Amino acid sequence: MRGRGSELCRPLPTGSHAQVQLQAADPVRLAVFPRRDRHDCYQHHEYGVLMQAAWLRKQSGQAVVLVAVAVLVLTAILALALDGGAIYLDKRQLQNAADSAALAGAELLMAVPPSYTAIHNQAMLNLLQNLPGTSKAGTACSASCPNLKTIGIPVAGVGSINLTAGYFVELSAPTSYTYQVSVWHTHPVAVAPIHGFQSTITLAARATAQNANLPYAVVLLQDKPAYAQWSNFSINGTPGSITMQGGGGAGNRGGMFSNASIAPGNGAPSIIFSPGTDQGDLWAVNESAADRTALNGAGVVQGQHTLSPIPLAGTHLDFPNYPEPVAPAVSYAGKTVVSGTDCLSPGQYTNAIKVQNGAEAVMLPGVYQIEANGADIQGTLRTVRSSELPYVSACGTVPVGADLGVIIEITPANTWEPTC
User: Do 268 and 330 lie in a common domain?
Assistant: First the structure.
């Protein structure tokens, strides 16, 4: 077959497909594939079917689609790198500020009496120092925070104390031993809106700090409504007394606290604060009239303390929700001191500790857990005195400089009432 110019149709072997070769405008561009010849305008299918250039031209738009997809992927990666990194850093700063403020506020939880104004003020000052561009002007804490357990209760999901610069805060003392700081920040994002996301995101951080350093020598937590004015502490027997002393020279320590009432003994003095300054006070949440009259009798309460009123009005203390100090694993089947002076070692007492006939029992430093029948003291139960150091006894040796503190945990495993 003869076409125009030098077009050529070659004879075909028997059983083979037709093959057409057209001269290319530029011979250099002629490409030959295995068992097939290719022209710029026509191409054979592997089975010899001729395909026109129009089909190839339909594929040219794929490059635009791929570029568009690549741009979306690249901007997503950019958003992850820029916005994701900024969000992470902001979240870290927010959590650090909340942690620091919670610790600052919890430091004042154990003040006597507790002042929520002072607690919130200290936490707020700490927050302002750690969050850039913030101010308390125009807030509930503008001059001084209110004396409330919780301020800045959330509205629409964020705290209602607006510190400007997109920061919002809630401050709270949920229990007697914990302080909580919640902080929110409206964080602007740069690249994410390109993909249809919001231009800001709200970040939140919360921190809770505990402080169980109770500033009392004796703490009585019974608070059942049926026994609201029960004498959580009372002294039986005549004469009978208890002596309390502040520890470690710290001020306002060594006193007694009751969630209900405090009653003295029948003699005078009944409650003694060791000589010196700031040895503590008596605090009661719901003192009965009879107990108050007895406490204010002549010479009943002696030593360095607040002279009026007796007792001072206390604020309810919750039962601890934190791990209590653990007593040593060594176990004792109770202890009874009937005469002279004997010693007691820290540990777990499965029965009562008793001191009878005016005897004296000296407690070595540590944690004592009385698991049944409480304590029955008809004599003297005391800790080691600093003047006795080094204290050498059958129970062990207490060296000079040792912490002489004692913790007594009385667990009501059965019916009992500790009697002193």
Answer: no
